[in-house]
Amino acid sequence: MPQRPSQPSEPAEQAQPQPLTEPARQSATGALGQPKQPRRAWRDLAEERIAEARARGEFDNLPGMGKPLRLDENVYAGQKALAYHLLKNNDAAPPEIERGHEIDRMLAQAEAELAKLRRWRDTLLARGRGADASDRRAYNIARDNTARRYAEQLRATNSNILSLNIIAPPALGRPLIAVERRLAAFEDEFPRVAE
């Protein structure tokens, strides 16, 4: 077994600083050989100058003070600036925004149908064995029709999401709906009742 070198019982002596080499000396001093001041961030410098100007009152009585900013021009619109301006003046939104609203409406409509079926199911379950066979049969028919419409709505919504993702910038894109997973959740939540 190899032996380890013995550890000194006293702490090792601190290394003495070596004299600076010429390149290190040049980087530690300015062009004239004077010590460099620590670098300040540009943001700190800007904040300092703004605070000084505020203290001197240079921001008092500026034109438009106390009035809302005019944000009519979108500097980021680029080539679409005229189109966005026309849409805004006619109370319309860009196509990608309109498509997003349409997707939201479709999802809300699908959820409203589920809520209606949920209320019907809860009413039927509250009656228990006292529910008529015709009520159970009507529920099963409504459940099957809702399942069919729900699947169609989810697929149509996915189609709109795909078209949105094509026309919209990535920040406005949306993930596709997992249709099969939602339909499986539907089957779990709304089983057919015995007629």
Structure, explained:
With 195 residues, this protein is mostly helical. The chain has a domain at 95-189. Helix content is 56%, strand content 0%. The protein contains 6 helices and no strands. It has helices at 22-28, 42-56, 81-89, 95-127, 133-167, 179-189. α4 (95-127) runs antiparallel to α5 and α5 (133-167) runs antiparallel to α6 (179-189). It starts with 21 loop residues before the first helix and ends in a 6-residue tail after the last helix.
Question: Could you provide a short overview of the structure?
Answer:
The protein has helices at residues 22-28, 42-56, 81-89, 95-127, 133-167, 179-189.
User: What's the shape?
Assistant: elongated
Beta-strand residue percentage: under 5%
Judged by helices, strands and strand pairing, the structural class is: mainly alpha
Unreliable sequence segments: 5-15
Report the end-to-end length measured between terminal Cα atoms. Answer: 83 Å
- What is the string of SSEs from the N terminus onward? HHHHHH
Cα-atom radius of gyration:
35 Å
> Which range best describes the helical content: under 10%, 10-25%, 25-40%, 40-55%, 55-70% or over 70%?
55-70%
Question: What is the topological layout?
Answer:
Elements: H1 22-28, H2 42-56, H3 81-89, H4 95-127, H5 133-167, H6 179-189
Helix pairs in contact: 4-5, 5-6
Protein traits:
single chain, 195 residues, mainly alpha, 56% helix
